[in-house]
Amino acid sequence: MRLRFAWRSAARRLLPLALLAALVLAGAPSLGQNAASGDSAAIEAAKVALDRIENTLGRGELSAKQLGDLRAALAETRDALRAKLEDLEPRMAEAEERLKQLGPPPPKDAPAEPAALAAEREDLSRAFSALDGAVKQSRLLLVRSDQLAERITARRHALYAREILERSPSVLDLSFWHEAVGALPEEFGKLGTVVSAWSAAADEKGRAHVAAALVCIAGLLLAARLIRRWWRRRYANGVASDTRFAKARKGLWVFISVAAPAPIVTAAALQVLDLFGLWTPQIEEIAAGLVAGVAVAAFGRGAALGLFAPERPERRLLAMDHKAAVCLAEHLVWSARIFGAAIVLQIVHKAVVTPLVLTIATNALFALAIAALLVHLIFRLRRLEEELDGATTAAPWVRLLGWVIVATLAAALVTGYAGLAAFIALRTVVAAALGCALYIWLVAADALFTEALSPETPRGRAIAANLGIPPRNAGLIGTLLSAAIRIVLVVLVVAVIVGPWEASTADLFESVQSMPLGFKIGEINVSFRGLLSAILALIVVLVATRIAQRWLEVRFLPQTTLEPSLQLSIVTIFGYLGIITAVALALGALGIDLQKIALVAGALSVGIGFGLQSIVSNFVSGLILLAERPIRVGDSIVVKGEEGWVRRIRVRATEIETFERASVIIPNSELITGLVKNWTHANTMGRVIIKVGVSYDSDPDQVRELLEKIANDHPQVVQSPPPRAFLLGFGDSALEFDLRCVVANVEHGLAVRSDLHFAILKAFREAGIEIPFPQCDVRVREAQTEARSGPPARRSGANAS
Q1: Which of 568, 558, 745, 543 is nearest to 655 (CA)?
Q2: Strand, helix or coil at 663?
Q3: Which label site among 224, 378, 432, 797 has the fewest CB atoms less than 10 Å from its CB?
Q4: If residue 412 lies in a helix (H) or strand (E), which one and from where to where?
């Protein structure tokens, strides 16, 4: 019985192995082969999808909807390829690691390895080759999908740009307005049909269904009102203090409480209708436009109230006149409302498929309304300045920019570019609203992290104690976080203003580039777009560099433990790097490659060899001074007979302020190649030597003790090394002593010398020690006297001092 049980147990254990061996010998596909076939199928499906998208793109003109569908299909294919790569790459890495562990096969003249080991290596090699091929193929298809995405984006942008730059009737053409008015009955009729279809759909659901939806919407509105009232009472009313942080916090709360509720409630109400099935496709499209319009209007109103605070001047973030703030806020609110209304009208035109003339008329009316608001704002600000006796209510460039925008809108509307005029007006309103919101967020972020984490406030010290770091480091962390958040906010806002909304500002540049505008310098073709891009890149990078330098110099570096001279070196070198980057980007935008830059550099080297040697030498010397730092800002130096303090190290020369408060400009090359005495290179200590003469009747030991005691008693004299008095010589009329001591700060050397002179004079008088005058004996010979003045006269020796 036991033997039979053992045989059955062995059979059960060996049966799976036997079946597996039979499958292998029969050539059945392994699990790795099944996986490889699955990978190949997925990759092939992605390839077919990309081929289909590329073939569709190769056709003629495609509408915006067709391009959007292609983009959606391409996004699905790219996601599938990325997922497949995430699955393939770890498997390939595992197979490669196993092959490395097995090592290479033995050479031919070496003993053969076991058959199982050879079979395992062969299987792993086959699997690795299949996975490697699949990974490469997937990456290739992913690159192809990226290229197709760029093509689709370019097509969509070009299509929208053509629509913007498409000619339309001028606003001065009365027949155009007559045609637009004549098309209104047709649109009203189609809109009535849409509403009737919506009413019929509601009737099908029943009155109870509609009543339940209305009750839900009413409850939603009541809850929103209560929440808004609580929010305003808790966060948005009053200012706890006049600090910058308190004003920024209240402004931010007001912005959120005004901008968020209306679009959220509108979207929620429409979602309730959707849940109850009270929807038609056209009404759904119009509802989406309504939500967008309400969001835009609410955002503009929130930005205006949060920044300008027309109702509560005590929490206003900007220092400006109250009437000017109210004027700016009102105009921004109305601009946002007009923009929101234009969005809703355009969505309605699209949903009911109205004649094209109404779309053009809506664009023209929107641009005209924005231009009228700008003109009214400019004249209103001007009248306010007259009422305030010439006090400025806004920066002069604001009014100049307003007139430029108005002139551009008027020119576009008169010449028949209503789409372009609407595009410019749209970007103007969005830039104004986002600019106000950005200012609120920037001030709030800066106040939060710099004031809340400041080591000078109790809150900052408490946070630092909780984090277990010194308060100074907490302030430094707050400054860095504030800068990082503000940079992110600025980048996001700029991306929204000039970024793609079916078309970006770059699309217009591409359209303008196709015009025959530009010029040629030698072999370099400079296009209109390239020139504008180079100027823009140069200005933006230089301004950004200057702002970053100012932030480093004023905000960040003073909170570090770096020396002031090293801080200035960092700021200066950062400025040089910014200038180099700006020039490189500008040259790249002009299409000048490195070879052409090398030619220009070669030409400049000839000029340098003839007349710019000293300038280049001073520039390089300035870089050496900043990097090696043998002379730093704040050092006391003596160079070419001039002594003073280093105040600034510039590109060409270094500025020294003498003790007479005169500025001496010394070329940097003189400081590198010449002899310079630096009193404070290693430290600020300096030696003071005072020479004293006493009469021969004085006790030298007493004199030495008095001198050393006087030096030790002075607070500016250091004790290591200690002051010492030395008897250095026997003069004609006095014993010559030197008192030598070291002061903590060489800047106080003159004051210490004066104090020691007063103390020595007082101590010697009290001790009865005489400081003799220089004496000499003068004798007049008799022979010379007789020859000059007659009878001889005897004169006694006289003392002269």
Answers
A1: 568
A2: strand
A3: 797
A4: helix 396-415
